[in-house]
């Protein structure tokens, strides 16, 4: 310290010891970094105030110039103006070295101006916020040529004061705008007498250096002080800046309305409205970003941000980056560096009193700073603010919700909210209309802590006010403000302890319908999971029924137009409460003429899926579990990455990740990051918590990147990628670096997949060159190479077997890979093949994954199926059916309890491993026939074990089940008297069996290839069959006599039997484009019509026999005259193969359906187009009907049309509008059987489920 400064302290020592309170001054000096916490503690250990003052001066005398200046500024800030005057004349100048350390590069002249003006020195720990700083300076430059106000506003602890002080540490700003100086005054909450003291202090400082005369006496009133300041600022400091820190009310601010240039910090945004002059505003964000906040903590503990413990991020997250809280905790950690977990717990437990002052902040603890803001409100407004204790973190609430809560007019609510916003007690999101409001996490935590004993009552008030306002009717779903109620009403009921109201709400199909339509099924599922404990006390079975209904139908509820929830619910078990409510609704609506279908045999058809999600518009190429199993990530053709909860499918994060298809995604071992790779040749790393891009790796791959995978353990985290590159197709990356760490050479063709061994020692790569290679991770050298192609003897050198993927056994001793339709298990050490598992020859294995805790292997197949195999015994254990297209990926959860699969059908299905594993039900095939007799139904169909089943009654009970047939059954039929069934097989054999005994009555041979269709005549004595061998055979089956109808040159898929009293004619059609008419009595061909250039796909004859229609792969339909045997109408307009047709019963209309899912209705009077059905939007399968329109039927009154495709739809034949949709569990429906009265409908879907649907009649239960 300079000698003159030291001498001044010694001269003034007695006076200073007598008057100062050391504890007040040391707060500022600790903040300036000139006094340590230990020194502060030693001073405070003295028993009396005078001894503390003496001890402080002793410490000061051993320090440098910076300490003297800091002590001087502290005296001014604590209103010891007369004592500061004693030191003013001997203020030292900083040396260049000291200046750099003290002012961080601010010039000497600027530092001198700031010191004299009492501007606080920069905190010991300071992190710059350049965007905010530049914004404040930009507003200050606006005061260059005019007086006015710059208001810096924000909530408590947001860093307003620090940034205001930092803004004036700028040489150019002071030189150009404020050459007269900068004067800082801390105002705070103060009575009028305290305000006068502060104004006197400021006047004293402004008058320093003037001669002592009468004008120097302190002003005696606020008004006199105001006039004194006006005179001083106008005459002595005409171009200076007055900084008023922490102003609370307008009356205080008006005392400084002296036509000067003022920078104001406050929590009340509207404060400057009470003064005259130009006004500018600068909002201060309530929190720092994570990077800045971690930097502050690191500076406090003398470390690096990346080296901080995990708790550091949690602390920043918990306080939302509040500069105050981060600084308070940082200062505490500087003294107690091992208390990270302790202070995190205090934050989480809302123990704000434990986070106490350790800086120059004006309040002893965080809760005091919060409470100070509340005390400025009027008492009634304090009560309204208390009601906000029930808000949730990060939830923005519209004013209309608070209108309901407070029972006020909307304008009154908006006025109250405006006051809260102006005082920084509440935040407003102006990006939404109407405005939405929210609390900072710290404000909400403080409110909850303050009102802990009243929280339940406040939630109850919210629920009662809602009930009174909406009067038991749910809010209008079209009102954006109603979203809050649909999202949070169950939350308020649960917090209020209103369990009865919660049961009534959550066990209501009406609530499910309304909420699902607005928010989707995932939010609802999450409610049943979150409040399951409460709901289970009422009825756990009902809770599970509603949860299962939503889990299995969620993908339908994502569709637009929104499906009929009542119809979806009618697919539930008859024992389900969901079904009971749906049936009541359906019966009531059926009385008003609406159409509903009851799946009467549903109890026999349980779904094995636990959850069905529809995360993307487009194929889902990959999905994976997080390491803790709580989240699922998915990616696909829509270029997006999506994260959602495993329990409910609720979306957590969605972002556009790449410019092209995203082919793979992978969680890091700690679940903090997720990597994505794409056909755009880029690899990116994302933050799971924030959804922000952490790193885009260098574009070292030149072709699309097929797969990415992190190491399994946290010891040495690496990311592997593989691509279609010729040489550099496998790379290892350190996630902290943008360039690759290693490249693994060996494959000369695309590498499709890569995966680390369980202990991360090896990396397995699967390539299109037909090999599986194992590389050492440490050295990146090739360790083993297995020629998988050699296990396919039929392969040639040019067409190698592509190795799609590989997976490791849990113990790491076996490596399993997939190629073509096979899966191989190899011993890692010897490379010997241990097992081979062959799937269907008609399918290819797309992916495989081994269970982490068992010998189960999941295999994804191109024929829409997931199979489970035991890779130790080479036996298939189960099939998971439900996907409607290729399955691209399968993966077990980390604990092996769940299995997910993703598909081209845009869905992800979640399966319970044990439930699927133990299921052994045989699925029916679609080659069925049905007999309707009075109220009974008889169904005949083959099953997946190639047995013939005959089922009867509306429940689908098995009447008869045959032994397994060696050749595959391809068609079935049943006689009119239900005593015989016939079947045709793949080898051309036809068999007739007795029902119900199952005894083979006759075996008919003659066809040389697959029998595609068979049918008994009405009397049951004749059986007609058509075949791949191009012939139709007419059998007198009891005798074995056969009439062969020869003429077609291509397979005959089907025929139509015409019977009347005078003749027996048969229409047959074929892929050869012809329709032939036969006389069944003699076998003569009566007519041979060349109808189409492409294959004839269907044919129908009008009920009066005058017309018949044909449809073709040539995209046309034709109508023919049965009298003239010539074409009457050519029907064009379909854009795909026309696969089905049907005349109405009055022969006035023809319906045609194509492979694009489009149905057209035509007039048979002139061949004109009447209507196009389902023209609004395509569904998830890029079709108007979920697939090909395979069958059509009119009702007897010709008013309704039923159609099959990917699901079943009923249409108004008059308007072409859809009347109802029934979503089957599987797609690709082949046909539907309709009862004569149009009340019963029977079909089998593509995964073997039988549907007996009955029309719901009006009435009551």
Automatic annotation (TrEMBL):
Chief location: cytoplasm
WD repeats: 655-696, 744-785, 880-921, 1004-1045, 1045-1088, 1089-1121, 1131-1172
GO cellular component, one term: apoptosome
Gene Ontology molecular function: ADP binding; ATP binding
CARD domain location: 1-90
Record keywords: Apoptosis, ATP-binding, Cytoplasm, Nucleotide-binding, Repeat, WD repeat
Keyword Glycosyltransferase: no
A biological process from GO: regulation of apoptotic process
Location relative to the cell: Cytoplasm
Top-level taxon in the UniProt lineage: Eukaryota
Gene3D superfamilies: 1.25.40.370, Death Domain, Fas, Helical domain of apoptotic protease-activating factors, P-loop containing nucleotide triphosphate hydrolases, Winged helix-like DNA-binding domain superfamily/Winged helix DNA-binding domain, YVTN repeat-like/Quinoprotein amine dehydrogenase
SMART domains: WD40
Function: Oligomeric Apaf-1 mediates the cytochrome c-dependent autocatalytic activation of pro-caspase-9 (Apaf-3), leading to the activation of caspase-3 and apoptosis. This activation requires ATP.
Subunit composition and interactions: Monomer. Oligomerizes upon binding of cytochrome c and dATP.
Protein's recorded name: Apoptotic protease-activating factor 1
Organism this protein belongs to: Cirrhinus molitorella (mud carp)
Organism taxonomic ancestry: Eukaryota, Metazoa, Chordata, Craniata, Vertebrata
């Amino acid at each position: 310290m300079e000698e003159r400064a030291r001498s001044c302290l010694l001269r003034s020592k007695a006076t200073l010891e007598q008057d100062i309170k050391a504890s007040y001054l040391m707060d500022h000096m600790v903040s300036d970094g000139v006094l340590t916490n230990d020194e502060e503690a030693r001073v405070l250990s003295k028993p009396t105030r005078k001894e503390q003052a003496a001890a402080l001066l002793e410490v000061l005398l051993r320090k440098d110039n910076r300490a003297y200046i800091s002590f001087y500024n502290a005296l001014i800030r604590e209103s010891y103006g007369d004592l500061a005057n004693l030191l003013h004349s001997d203020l030292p100048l900083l040396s260049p070295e000291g200046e750099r350390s003290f002012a961080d590069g601010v010039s000497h002249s600027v530092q001198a101006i700031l010191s004299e003006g009492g501007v606080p020195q920069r905190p010991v720990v300071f992190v710059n916020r350049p965007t905010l700083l530049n914004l404040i300076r930009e507003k200050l430059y606006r005061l260059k040529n005019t007086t006015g106000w710059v208001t810096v506003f924000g909530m408590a602890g947001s860093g307003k004061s620090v940034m205001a002080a930092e803004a004036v540490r700028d040489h150019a700003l002071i030189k150009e705008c404020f050459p007269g100086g900068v004067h800082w005054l801390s105002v705070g909450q103060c009575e009028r007498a305290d305000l006068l003291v502060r104004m006197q202090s400021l006047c004293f400082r402004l008058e320093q250096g003037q001669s002592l005369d009468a004008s120097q006496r302190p002003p005696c009133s606020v008004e006199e002080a105001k006039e004194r300041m006006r005179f001083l600022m106008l005459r002595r400091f005409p171009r200076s800046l007055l900084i008023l820190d922490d102003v609370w009310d307008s009356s205080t601010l008006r005392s400084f309305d002296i036509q000067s240039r003022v920078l104001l910090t406050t929590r009340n945004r509207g404060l400057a409205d009470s003064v005259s002059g130009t006004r500018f505003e600068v909002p201060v964000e309530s929190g720092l970003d994570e990077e800045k906040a971690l930097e502050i903590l690191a500076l406090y503990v003398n470390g690096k941000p990346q080296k901080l413990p995990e708790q550091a991020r949690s602390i920043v997250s918990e306080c939302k980056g509040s500069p105050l809280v981060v600084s308070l905790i940082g200062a505490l950690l500087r003294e107690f560096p091992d208390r990270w977990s302790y202070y995190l717990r205090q934050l989480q437990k809302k123990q704000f009193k434990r986070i106490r002052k350790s800086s120059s902040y004006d309040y002893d603890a965080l809760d005091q700073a919060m409470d100070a803001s509340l005390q400025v409100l009027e008492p009634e407004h304090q009560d309204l603010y208390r009601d906000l204790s029930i808000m949730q973190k990060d939830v923005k609430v519209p004013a209309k919700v608070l209108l309901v809560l407070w029972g006020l007019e909307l304008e009154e609510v908006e006025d109250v909210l405006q006051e809260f916003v102006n005082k920084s007690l509440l935040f407003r999101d102006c990006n939404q209309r109407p405005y939405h409001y929210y609390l900072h996490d710290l404000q909400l935590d403080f409110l909850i802590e303050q009102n802990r004993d009243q929280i339940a009552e406040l939630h109850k008030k919210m629920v009662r006010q809602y009930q009174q306002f909406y009067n038991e009717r749910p809010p209008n779903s079209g009102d954006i403000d109603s979203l809050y109620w649909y999202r949070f009403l169950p939350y308020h009921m649960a917090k209020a302890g209103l369990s009865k109201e919660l049961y009534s709400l959550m066990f209501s199909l009406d609530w499910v319908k309304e909420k699902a339509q607005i928010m989707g099924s995932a939010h609802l599922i999450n409610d049943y999971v979150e409040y399951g404990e409460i709901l289970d006390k009422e009825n756990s079975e009902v809770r599970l029924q509603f949860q299962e209904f939503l889990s299995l139908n969620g993908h339908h509820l994502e569709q637009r137009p929104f499906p009929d929830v009542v119809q979806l619910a009618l697919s539930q078990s008859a024992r389900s409460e969901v079904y009971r409510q749906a049936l009541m609704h359906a019966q009531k609506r059926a009385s008003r003429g609406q159409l509903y279908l009851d799946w009467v045999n549903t109890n026999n058809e349980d779904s094995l899926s636990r959850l069905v999600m529809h995360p993307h518009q487009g194929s889902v190429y990959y999905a994976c579990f997080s390491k803790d199993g709580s989240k699922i990530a998915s990616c696909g053709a829509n270029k997006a990455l999506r994260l959602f909860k495993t329990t409910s499918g609720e979306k957590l994060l969605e972002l556009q990740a790449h410019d092209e298809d995203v082919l793979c995604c992978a969680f890091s071992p700690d679940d903090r990051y997720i990597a994505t790779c794409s056909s755009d040749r880029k690899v990116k790393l994302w933050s799971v918590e924030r959804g922000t891009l952490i790193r885009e790796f260098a574009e070292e791959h030149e072709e699309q990147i097929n797969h990415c995978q992190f190491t399994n353990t946290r010891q040495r985290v690496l990311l592997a990628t593989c691509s279609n590159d010729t040489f550099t197709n496998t790379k290892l990356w350190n996630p902290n670096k943008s360039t690759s760490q290693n490249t693994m050479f060996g494959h000369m063709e695309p590498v499709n997949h890569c995966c680390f061994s369980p202990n991360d020692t090896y990396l397995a790569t699967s390539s299109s060159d037909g090999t599986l290679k194992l590389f050492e991770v440490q050295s990146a050298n090739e360790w083993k190479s297995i020629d998988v192609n050699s296990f396919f003897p039929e392969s040639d050198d040019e067409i190698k077997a592509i190795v799609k993927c590989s997976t490791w056994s849990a113990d790491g001793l076996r490596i399993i890979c997939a190629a073509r339709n096979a899966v191989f298990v190899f011993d890692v050490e010897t490379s010997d093949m241990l097992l081979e598992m062959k799937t269907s020859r008609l399918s290819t294995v797309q992916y495989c994954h081994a269970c982490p805790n068992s010998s189960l292997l999941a295999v994804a197949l191109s024929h829409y199926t997931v199979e489970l195999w035991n890779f130790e015994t080479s036996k298939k254990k189960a099939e998971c059916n439900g996907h409607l297209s290729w399955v691209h990926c399968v993966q077990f959860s980390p604990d092996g309890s769940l299995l997910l699969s993703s598909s081209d059908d845009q869905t992800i299905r979640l399966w319970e491993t044990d439930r699927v594993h133990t299921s052994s039900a045989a699925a029916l095939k679609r080659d069925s026939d049905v007999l309707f007799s009075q109220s009974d139904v008889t169904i005949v169909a083959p099953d997946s074990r190639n047995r013939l089943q005959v089922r009867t009654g509306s429940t689908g009970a098995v009447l008869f089940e045959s032994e397994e047939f060696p050749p595959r059954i391809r068609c079935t039929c049943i006689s009119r008297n239900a005593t015989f069934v016939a079947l045709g097989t793949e080898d051309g054999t036809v068999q007739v069996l007795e029902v119900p005994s199952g005894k083979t009555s006759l075996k008919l041979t003659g066809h040389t290839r697959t029998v595609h269709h068979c049918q008994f005549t009405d009397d049951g004595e004749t059986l007609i069959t058509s075949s791949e061998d191009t012939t139709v055979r007419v059998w007198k089956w009891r005798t074995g006599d056969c009439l062969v109808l020869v003429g077609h040159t291509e397979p005959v898929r089907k025929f139509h039997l015409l019977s009347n009293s005078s003749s027996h004619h048969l229409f047959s059609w074929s892929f050869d484009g012809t329709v032939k008419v036969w006389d069944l009595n003699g076998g003569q061909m009566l007519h041979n019509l060349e109808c189409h250039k492409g294959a004839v796909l269907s044919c129908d004859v009008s009920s009066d026999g005058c017309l018949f229609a044909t449809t073709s792969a040539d995209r046309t339909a034709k109508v023919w005259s049965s009298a003239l045997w010539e074409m009457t109408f050519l029907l064009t307009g379909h854009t795909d193969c026309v696969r089905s047709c049907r005349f109405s019963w009055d022969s006035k209309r023809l319906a045609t359906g194509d492979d694009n899912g489009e149905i057209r209705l035509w007039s048979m009077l002139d061949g004109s187009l009447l209507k196009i059905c389902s023209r609004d939007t395509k569904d998830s399968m890029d079709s108007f009907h979920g697939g090909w329109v395979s069958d059509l039927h009119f009702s007897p009154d010709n008013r309704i049309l039923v159609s099959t495709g990917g699901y079943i739809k009923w249409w108004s034949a008059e308007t072409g509008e859809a009347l109802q949709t029934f979503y089957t569990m599987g797609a690709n429906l082949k046909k539907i059987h309709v009862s004569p009265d149009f009340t019963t409908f029977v079909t089998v879907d593509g995964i073997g489920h039988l549907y007996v649907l009955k029309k719901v009649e009006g009435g009551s239960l």
